[in-house]
Hints:
The structure holds two protein chains of two kinds. Chain A is an alpha/beta fold. Helix content of chain A is 40%, strand content 12%. Chain A has helices at 8-17, 22-40, 48-63, 106-113, 156-163, 180-186, 220-230, 248-254, 275-290, 306-321, 342-353, 356-369, 375-398, 421-426, 432-437, 467-485, and strands spanning 43-46, 75-79, 117-122, 169-173, 189-192, 213-217, 261-265, 294-298, 401-405, 440-448, 455-462. By secondary structure, chain B is an alpha+beta fold. Chain B has helices at residues 5-11, 62-74, 185-203, 243-262, 308-316, 322-333, 337-345, 349-357, 362-380, 390-401, 407-418, 424-431, 439-452, 454-461, 468-478, 485-495; strands at 12-23, 78-79, 86-89, 99-102, 109-120, 123-138, 142-146, 158-162, 169-175, 215-225, 235-240, 270-274, 281-286, 296-297.
Amino acid sequence: MTNIHSTAAQMSEALSEGSITSVELTEAHLVQIEKVDSKVHAFLHVDRENALAQARDVDAKRKSGEKLSALAGVPLALKDVLAQKGVPTTCGSKMLEGWRPPYDSTVVAKLKQSGVVILGKTNMDEFAMGSSTENSAYGPTHNPWDLTRIPGGSGGGSAAALASFEAPLAIGTDTGGSIRQPAAVTGTVGVKPTYGAVSRYGLVAFSSSLDQAGPCARTVLDTALLHEVIAGYDQMDSTSINAPVPQVVTAAKKLDVKGLKIGVVKELSGEGYQAGVQQRFNEALDELVKAGAEIVEVSCPNFEYALAAYYLIAPSEASSNLARFDSMRYGLRVGDDGKTSAEEVMNLTRHEGFGAEVKRRIILGTYALSSGYYDAYYGSAQKVRTLLIRDYQAAFAKADVLVSPTCPTTAFKLGENVDNPVAMYLNDIATIPVNMAGIGGMSLPCGLAPEDGLPVGFQIMSPAMKDDLMYQVGGTLEAALVSKWGKTLLSEIPALAGK
Amino acid sequence: MALSYDQAVEKYEPTLGLEVHVELNTKSKMFCGCATEFGAEPNTQTCPICLGLPGALPVVNGRAIESTILIGLALNCQIAPFSRFARKNYFYPDMPKNFQTSQYDEPICINGYLDVEIDTDDGKMPFRVEIERVHMEEDTGKSLHVGGETGRIHGADYSLLDYNRAGIPLVEIVTKIIPGAKKYAPQVARAYVTELRDILRSLGVSDVKMEQGSMRCDVNLSLAPIGSGALGTRSETKNVNSLRSVERAVLGEVIRQSNRLDAGERIVQETRHFLEESGQTRPGRSKEQAEDYRYFPEPDLVPVVPDATWIETLRGQLPERPSARRKRLQAEWSVPDKEMDSLVNAELLDVVEETISLGAEPARARSWWLGEVSRLANEREVAPTSLITASSIAEIIVLIESGELTDKLARQVIEGVIAGEGSAKEVIEKRGLKVVSDDGALMKAIESAIAASPDTAERVRSGNIPAAGALIGAVMKATGGQADAAKVRELLLKHLGQG
C-alpha cells in the first residue's frame, strides 16, 4: 500500500502500475502538511493549486499512454532559494517578501519537464546563511525528531519536510553544508553534487563559487533518481560541467563495495566530536568492512584552515551578490516618501530588509575585499582553497572515497547557539572542505546517538565528477544498516510523523 | 595677468592619458541574448540577466571577445593567453547588480601602441601613443534625472531608468601616460582618437558614433614645470563627445591648470565635465580619496583562454591600417595634402574610392563629392553619402567625360537623383538633359544669336575675342543650357572667321 511513508521509488512504481494517481498522492501530502506543518514549519509557501494542476496534468498524460520519466507525478518540496516563475521566492528574507520571479530556474524547469509535482517552497536561513534555519525572517523550522531542536540549515525546511513525511523528495542547496548538515540532523539523505553538475541558473546566489543545488530524500536511491532529473550541462550557467551525468541510479543499486578503498579523514574526528556520533560512525565503518571494503586512514593537514578560509570567501562573494537588493527594481522598499534620496532609500531598505547574520557576513566580506586587506584575506583564502584541493588529490590517490561524520554533534537546541556565531559555524567543519574543493559529498543516516537518541549523519566524499562512487558506497551502507536494524531509521521518529 | 595657451606651454609640460570607451556593435548584449538596438522604447530590451534579477547568471558573448581581440591586434597589443572578468563593486541605481562586470588586473589585451601623425611647425610628424590595455566590460543603464537644477541625481524630483543599455558590450582602451607631446598635446589627443576611430570603423566592430555615445573619451591631463621631470596631479575630463572637443578639452585644461599653478594653487585630483559651449570644464567628483571598488574575480564566469591559432586567424583578417590606406590612396590619386585632409575630415575617402573603382576619373570623383554633393548635403544638414550613391556619381562622371553631360547638366541630374526621380539615366531621360551636340542645331542657334546682336558679332570678327562671351551666353540660353559651351565657342569663332 503506497502512502506518504513510502519511498519515492515505491511511489513511482505505484504510479506507473496505476494503483495510485498523482492527484491522490499529492493530496495525501497536502493533508500531511496541513496536519503537521503548524508544528514543524518546513514550508514558507504551499502551492496547493499549482501542485494539484501539475498532478492532474501528469495523470492525464499517463492515461493517454505518454511515456513519462521515473519521478513523474511524485511530489517534491523546493528550497525557497530557487526561482520558480510566478511563485513567491523569498530566500527566507524580508528583502524579497512578495517577489514572484518572472522566470524558472533551470532546476525548476527540469523538474517540471520530468513531471515532478512541486508542493511549495521550504524554509531556510536567510539567503542560505546559517546552520539552523533560525536566521529565517519567517521564524525557524523545528526538527521533527524533537521540536525544540534545530533541523539544521540552511536547508532545514527541505530536510524537515522529508523527515515529517510532508514530501518524499526535496531540493536543497549547499554552500558549506546546507544540504548535508540538515540531512544528518534529521535522519535523511542529502547530496551535494560536484560543483557544476547541477545548473545554478535561477539559484539566488549566496557564494557563487561554492553554491551547488542537490537532491534530498529519505533513501539513497530516491536521492539518485532526483539527481538524474536535475543534473546536466546548462548553457545558461558558464560554470556548468559539459560532460555526461554519472550513472548515479545504477551506482545506488549496485550494493557492492568489494575492493573499494575507503579513506577515513584523520582530521575530521576527535576533539569536538560527540561520543555517540563517533561511535555510530565507527559502527558504520564496520558494516562497510563486512561488505568487502578496505578502510585506510588519510590525512588532510590543511583542513584546519578550511573554516577560516570559507568565512572569507563566502562572505566576500555574498557582499557583492547581495548588493543588488537595493529596492530599486523589486522586493522591499523602505522610506520612499518622495522626499528621501535614492541612496537613503537603499540604506533604509537594506537596514530593515536584511537580518543580523546577513549583515554580519556582508560587513565581513566588504572588509575582506577592501583594498589593502584583499591580499591578506581574500587572497590568502584562495591559496588555502588550492591547498585543500591538493589535500583531496593526495587523499584520493590512496582511497576511492573519503568518509567522516557529517557533523560533530547531533541537533542542538533552538536558541542554543544564536548568540555564538563561531560555535554555529563549527557545526559545518566537516562539510565545508567539500565545497571549497568543488567535489561531491553525501550525508546518510548511520543511527541514533545513544546519549540523546538523535540521528547521526555519515558523510561520503567522492572526487569531482565521480558522484556515482558516493552513491555506490552510500547505497551499500544504507542497505547494510537497514538490514542490521531490521527497519529504517525514520520509522523510529516520534508520533509527529504520524505513522 | 592670465596665461594664454602659448605662454602656458612655454612654462609647463603637459602629460596626457586617454581612456576611450567603445560600444561594440554586436547583435546581442555582453552577457545575455537581449538586442542592442539604439533608440528602442525604454526597458524593452531587457531580461532577467541584464536586469540582474536574483538567480540570473551571465554567459559571455563570444563575438564580443572576438571583436576585442581584433581591436587589440590592430593596436599592436599582446593577447593574454589567460584573462578574467572581475566585479567592480559600487552602488548606483542604473547598475542592476550594483557591480559592473569588467576586467581588472587580468585584461585581455596589453602593451600595444598606435602611431599617429600630427601637424607641427616643421610639417607632418609621426607620434607614437603607447597603449596600456584593452579590456571588456558591460555598459550600465541610463538615468534621466527629472527636476532639480543640475540634472544630476542630487536634487532631482525623481529619476527615470532605462536598462536597454545595461549589459551592452563595452571595450575600454587605455593609453599609457603620453609624455613629450609638448605644445602639440591637443593635436596628439585629437589625432589619436581620430586614428583609433578610423581603425575601429575599419574593423567593423563598432558604430563609433561619438554623438550617440557609442564612442566616448575621457581625457586625463597633468602639467609639470618644463624640465622638472616631475608628474603633476591630473584631472580627468569625462565624456568628451567629438573629435573637436577632445582637442578643445586638452587646450582648456592646459590653460586652466597652468593658471592655477601660476597662482600658487594646487590641482585637485578630480573628474571634470567638458562644457561644449565654452570649451571649458567644470568640476565633478573628487578623486582625492580613491574609491574602493573591491574588485575580485567574477566567480560566475570562467576565464577567457583564447586559442593561439584562433588569434592568428584573426590577425590574418585585419584590414589595411587606415593611415596606410590614406597614404596609398593619396599616392594613387596624386592628391595634394590639403585636399586629402579635406576628404578625410569630410569622411569621403570610402565613397570616393568606390566612385573611382566604378570608372570615374579620380580628380572628378574628388571634386564632385567635395564640391556639389557636399554643398547639397550641408544645406540639408546630412552626410553626403546619405544623399546619393557612389554608383550614381560614377555614372554621371562617365557621361561628363564622354561629353554627354555638361557640369551644369550634371548638377541637375544630381538634383533629380536626390529628389528621388530615379537613376541618373532615368533623370536624364525624364528631364531631357542630353547635351545638344548636333552641329546643325547649334549652328541655327548661333546664326540667330548673331542676327540678334550684329554689333557684337562685328566686334568679334574684328578680333575682339572676349566679346564672343555674350553671343555664347545667348546660344546657351537658347538651347536651355543643354549645349556644350566649349563646342558652341568653337563653332561660333569659326563662323566669325576667328577659329
